[in-house]
Amino acid sequence: MSSKPTATIASWPRPPRESEVQPVLTDLLDLASDFPILSRKVRDGKPLVYLDTGATSQKPRQVLDAEREFNELHNAAVHRGAHQIAEEATEAFEAARSAVARFVGADVGEIVWTKNATEALNLIANGFLNASLGRGGSSASRYKLGPEDEIVVTELEHHANLVPWQELAAKTGARLRWIPVTGEGRLDLQQLEVINERTRVVAFTHASNVTGAITDVATILDRAQSVGAYTVLDACQSAAHLPVDFHQLGIDFAVFSGHKMLGPTGVGALYGRRELLEALPPFLTGGSMVEVVTMEETTFMPPPQRFEAGTQMVAQTVGMRAAVDYLGAVGMGRVAAHEDHLAGILLEGLTQVPGVRLLGPTSSEQRLAVFAFDVPGVHPHDVGQVLDDQGIAVRVGHHCAQPVHRSFGVHASTRASAGVYTTTADVEAFIDGLHKVVKFFA
Predict the structure, then answer these.
(1) Residue ranges of the Aminotransferase class V domain (predicted)?
(2) Is residue 2 part of a domain?
(3) What mean pLDDT do residues 379-399 have?
(4) In terms of residue numbers, what domain contains 252?
């Protein structure tokens, strides 16, 4: 077997077989040539080393081409009009839904387009709120919340999976509780008694965007189901890095975002079990999601259209389809193995940089190649600036996750995060650059 697979996705007419991806190689994947931005120079001609995938991933040429082709040849409003390009646009829009559903292990009618995962989470939370206000009829009564009820989140959550539940609790009188984080940056599953017979919703991340820790979904799900609570999974950090099957997981709702999985910005998706979506009142209302409108009242379409008010982001859904097709052709097992290999190199390298404190698991088991760290006495913005001067792009700040940073006793951190296009050379450049940072500020 050659030392690395052929670079372009065009060479993969089918997902690779298991026998074709073993053993794990030094560079399991070499796909950077598919991503035009990775060939550019920054900061006075330095090659770009992009390690901010956890914030926004880069797009392969196949995604850029798909979106451009749609706009050039097929752009029209979907589910409206009888002319040819409107039919083509609608077909592309729904074909994208089917492709994304297959990618995450869902039925096509269980995928709702949203503009991002944040909107998807607000859609769920506000659906519960509308049910609590009496909207949605008898079928929605299952979602009613009151002062006797509790909502459980975790200390690891991105603000998008925390603030909407805080708001729901404040508006319904329900109590918000949370699963704490251990000193290693994993959820403390010894504290699952926080999920009890009063719990109505358990919302949690599949993988932390700060510590990189992968959640033991089955354990939390078993506890939640034992008390009849609804489960909501934030899969933003997992969908592009791990094989994901929502039916197999048994989750009730899940959200993910296109721009974190090689796709365009402005598009994301909500997964919901069909019978649950059918009972959930809509959050956004207007055109395209209605059946009959009179001056007195309106009836709504069944899901997923019920939750897709207004003109949709059609070109972006086409781009998202190209992204999941790309990942699927590479093979998600192959992607996960590649990134697990990079995580091991990152972990070893970070532990050898003097003074650097890792905010997260010190083992590569059950973690992503996402590493937030603190350099004591040096502000993360200064760390990021010195790395940027070397052409290395990382994230600095609290990463929209203040509570978990507070649990580590810091206000912010520097974060390096890898993706399918990241190479060992990128990781080695980052580790070398971090040594220079420490030396510079010493």
Answers:
(1) 49-430
(2) no
(3) 98
(4) 66-328
Mean pLDDT of the residues in the chain: 93
- Are 202 and 88 members of one domain? yes
State both tokens at 382.
């200064």
- What's the whole-model pTM score? 0.93
Task: Indicate if 21 and 84 belong to the same structural domain.
Answer: no
Mean pLDDT for 199-215 is 98
Asked if pLDDT for residue 311 goes beyond 70, the answer is yes
Helix (H, G, I), strand (E, B) or coil at 335: helix
Structural domain total, the chain: 2
Say whether both 318 and 340 belong to one domain.
no
As beta bridge partners, residue 370 has 417
Residue 9 near residue 34, CB atoms below 8 Å: yes
Identify any residues that bridge with 415 across adjacent strands, giving them in sequence order.
372, 395
Could you give the angle at which helices 314-330 and 61-73 cross, rounded to 10 degrees?
Answer: 150
Is 389 within a domain?
A: yes
Which is catalytic among the residues 163, 176, 400, 438?
400
Quick: pLDDT tens for 254-267: 999 999 999 999 99
**Is 236 an annotated catalytic residue?**
no
Q: Per DSSP, what are the bridge partners of residue 205?
A: 234
Q: What are the CA-CA distances from residue 241 to residues 17, 185, 261, 288, 431 (Å)?
A: 18, 19, 8, 34, 22
| Cα 368 to Cα 31: distance, rounded to the nearest angstrom | 19
Look-up: residue for tokens 């990775």?
38
Q: Residue 21: its pLDDT value, please?
A: 39
SS3 205: strand
Cα Rg of the chain (Å, integer): 22
Residues with Cβ within 8 Å of 42's Cβ and at least 6 positions away in sequence, in order, are 48, 388, 391, 393
Q: State mean pLDDT over 374-401.
A: 97
Confidence label for 28 from pLDDT (cuts 50, 70 and 90): low
DSSP state of 48: P
Identify the three-state secondary structure at position 178: strand
Amino acid letter, residue 103: F
